[in-house]
UniProtKB/TrEMBL annotation:
GO CC entries: lysosome
Similarity remark: Belongs to the palmitoyl-protein thioesterase family.
Region forming the signal peptide: 1-29
InterPro entries, A to Z: AB_hydrolase_fold, Palm_thioest
Protein name: Lysosomal thioesterase PPT2
Catalysed reaction equations from the record: S-hexadecanoyl-N-acetylcysteamine + H2O = N-acetylcysteamine + hexadecanoate + H(+)
Keyword annotations: Disulfide bond, Glycoprotein, Hydrolase, Lysosome, Signal
Compartment(s) where it occurs, according to its Swiss-Prot or TrEMBL record: Lysosome
Function: Catalyzes the cleavage of thioester bonds from S-palmitoyl-CoA or S-palmitoyl-N-acetylcysteamine (unbranched structures) but does not have activity against palmitoylcysteine or palmitoylated proteins, branched structures or bulky head groups. Conversely, hydrolyzes both long and short chain fatty acyl-CoA substrate.
Keyword Disulfide bond carried by entry: yes
GO function term, MF aspect, one: palmitoyl hydrolase activity
Amino acid sequence: GSMLGLRGLRLPPAGILLLLPFLPPLLLPAAPAPHRASYKPVIVVHGLFDSSYSFRHLLEYINETHPGTVVTVLDLFDGRESLRPLWEQVQGFGEAVAPIMAEAPEGVHLICYSQGGLVCRALLSVMEEHNVDSFISLSSPQMGQYGDTDYLKWLFPTSMRSNLYRICYSPWGQEFSICNYWHDPHHDDLYLNASSFLALINGERDHPNATAWRKNFLRVGRLVLIGGPDDGVITPWQSSFFGFYDANETVLEMEEQPVYLRDSFGLKTLLARGAIVRCPMAGIAHTAWHSNRTLYETCIEPWLS
């Protein structure tokens, strides 16, 4: 079996294993207390079928480079619950981050992975008083998803990407998080009419809150976009940088996107302000973004002030 001959050993309860990374410092004499006004709190939002456990490495890295940082990995909508409609998740995560923000007058940093990056972008749009300094979007399908991935085959075994719009662009389909950002470049009219989430936060469909949401989103100090060509899940991978397919499945970069050109939710304004950082990195698969040390040091650590 996978236990590699450990079967006879009594393994300690999982709780103790989780503590192991934190034990060595406890054995050392107490260090002098660092001066206050240290690093801003970090809030982490997970992705599809994920839980807080996936971020144990990231926690370790932040602990090493920015000791004393208060990091909260939100434990909501874990596992299958991550398929709940995204507006429901925005509501739940919003209630969880509000008190953390309230206690952080200097501001907070958000690290949001995969589907969580869309939850966070919606949060920044609907929260009037948010104080997010860096919003770090970690391999997130910011302009939507259009790909035959393993997730898709598991959820909708009989559908290919070319016909998934029949499910996703129905009221029933929009009850699944994946359909909330399913973006079929061949059925734009259906997407605009049916997408109850992405088309709204992108300001692609008119709605009464568009101006207020744009103003809220522009409160962010910095937008850090991370992704890469070897991701294997985000399709097209440039969606992590607000690029997406046109009707011919040619990828148009952010600066060529109508939402950018119209500045419908603030991207153009942020770029002009010098507040967008793009950090593409090759050689990293989708499930490895939050545990790759080099990626952390290059693309995340510099923005955790």
